[in-house]
Write a structure and sequence with these properties.
Blueprint (H helix, E strand, L loop, with lengths): L9 E6 H9 L14 E5 L2 H15 L5 H5 L2 E3 L10 H10 L1 H9 L6 E7 L4 H14 L19 E8 L6 H15 L10 E6 H4 L9 H20 L7 H11 L3 E11 L5 H9 L13 E9 H5 L5 H14 L5 E9 L5 E9 L4 H4 L3 H11 L2 E2 L5 E2 L1 H19 L1
Parallel strand pairs: 1-2, 1-4, 2-3, 4-5, 5-6, 6-7, 8-9
Antiparallel strand pairs: 7-10, 8-10, 11-12
Helix pairs in contact: 1-2, 4-6, 6-7, 7-15, 7-16, 11-13
Pfam family, one: Tubulin
InterPro entries: Tubulin/FtsZ_GTPase_sf (IPR036525), Tubulin_FtsZ_GTPase (IPR003008)
Protein name: Tubulin/FtsZ GTPase domain-containing protein
Length: about 400
């Protein structure tokens, strides 16, 4: 059994209204393995942040002290919104980086950050790639020398980016392409986030375009994060965020999408079948056979583990057989982790990485190219601009990364 003093401590940093909507649902969980209450939601717009705080109130309870609720929320920048233009979101984060870092330090020592943003907007899409880059480059833009703490140098940065609905306006798809590129690569064409997780609203929404399914979509995202983080909190084998990021980073294939199947009957279904069920539920459009890195987390009632109904060797063997059946030559691991309660329901998470990104980008690339020439060289609203050279770097970084992983 894992020791309670050795688990990975996570903090969730969500920016923008969409990111805040996702993060607020963490407070509706009876248990957040590894996260507890280390959750910060940020926004450049006071009204949008107020909406997020109201969601927090509904999750935490009306009797919760207002100061406690607002300790999880931060307004940053002086622009009152990013105007759906991601350079403004980045400029706001640069302006208030000291305040952002100071607020994060209030959570105490953290081993890993889960950064959350929807990629179609300006605030989260602009600020999250910038903040990740700052941490990985020693917080070079800090003015307050006391803001950074030594533990921040070794934090692992995972980022969860959510693709806009396919029917949304071209500006949002332009933002999404730029956001993905900036999460993956810095201006110097170096790796940015240690791990980039992706989900697509249209792919997760059964109504595909109804636009009213955010809660169910966000619930699916939270479930995937719970399964991913829970494996490092309480596991029968050794798999955690360091395992997820080390080899894929060496392969330059560190983008992932979750694939989830929950409430499977472990007394009836074989493990390989469960993996197939999960693989049919990827969070973005993709060809599973293009996967180059994969991790499987099987969460089952503790009783079934104690009784030997599902064992670590069973999980390893099923994972090997599943990858062989799909002709997937992957770097990866499998993990068995317990959950509380009786019954026989099993949850499965596949983290599929290094896959061909073109099926996702195909939904946005025309809009991106159409707006690229118009927006390059412009400043909008808050005064931040997007130069032609910056846009060229964004395109070159993404295209070279995608080409390497499509070979």
């Amino acid at each position: 059994m894992a020791q309670t003093d050795t688990f990975t401590r996570w903090s969730v940093i969500a920016s923008g209204e969409g990111g805040g909507r996702i993060a607020s649902q963490f407070f509706d969980r009876t248990e957040n393995p590894g996260i507890d209450d280390r959750i910060l939601v940020m926004n450049t717009n006071r009204a949008d942040l107020r909406n997020t705080i109201d969601r927090l109130k509904s999750k935490l309870g009306a009797t919760e002290d207002e100061d406690v609720i607002e300790s999880h929320a931060l307004e940053f920048g002086s622009q009152q919104g990013a105007g759906n233009f991601f350079p403004n979101g980045a400029a706001c984060a640069r302006e208030d980086l000291d305040r952002i870092v100071n607020r994060i330090t209030e959570f105490g020592t953290t081993d890993a950050f889960m950064h959350v943003a929807t990629l179609g907007g300006g605030t989260g899409n602009g600020s999250i790639p910038y903040v990740v880059d700052q941490f990985r480059d020693g917080l070079r833009d800090l003015n307050d020398n006391n803001a950074a703490e030594e533990w921040m140098d070794s934090v692992i940065h995972a980022a969860f980016g959510v693709w806009p609905y396919y029917y949304e306006q071209p500006q949002r798809h332009f933002n999404a392409v730029c956001g993905l590129s900036r999460l993956l690569r810095t201006d110097d064409d170096e790796q940015n986030a240690d791990m980039v997780l992706l989900a697509s609203n249209s792919h997760l929404d059964d109504e595909d375009g109804a636009g009213d399914q955010y809660d169910s979509i966000n619930d699916a995202i939270i479930t995937a994060i719970d399964l991913m983080i829970g494996a490092g909190r309480e596991t029968r084998s050794v798999i955690d965020i360091k395992d997820y990021v080390t080899i894929p980073s060496q392969m330059d294939a560190y983008h992932f999408t979750p694939a989830v199947a929950t409430d499977l009957n472990g007394s009836v279904y074989e493990l390989e079948y469960m993996l197939d069920q999960a693989a049919s539920g990827t969070f973005v459009p993709m060809d599973v056979e293009t996967t180059t890195a994969a991790y499987a987390i099987v969460r089952t009632p503790e009783r079934m583990i104690d009784d030997g109904e599902i064992t670590e060797p069973d999980v390893y063997q099923a994972f090997r057989e599943w990858t062989a059946k799909h002709d997937i030559n992957v770097a990866g691991q499998a993990s068995l982790t317990p959950k509380r309660g009786r019954g026989s329901d099993v949850d499965v998470l596949l983290l599929l990485g290094g896959f061909d990104l073109n099926p996702l980008l195909d939904h946005s690339w025309d809009d991106f190219e159409m707006l690229g020439e118009t927006l390059a060289g412009q400043s909008r609203g808050g005064g931040a601009d997007l130069t032609s050279a910056q846009l060229d770097r964004i395109v070159d970084n993404l295209e070279s990364y995608v080409e390497r992983n499509a070979e």
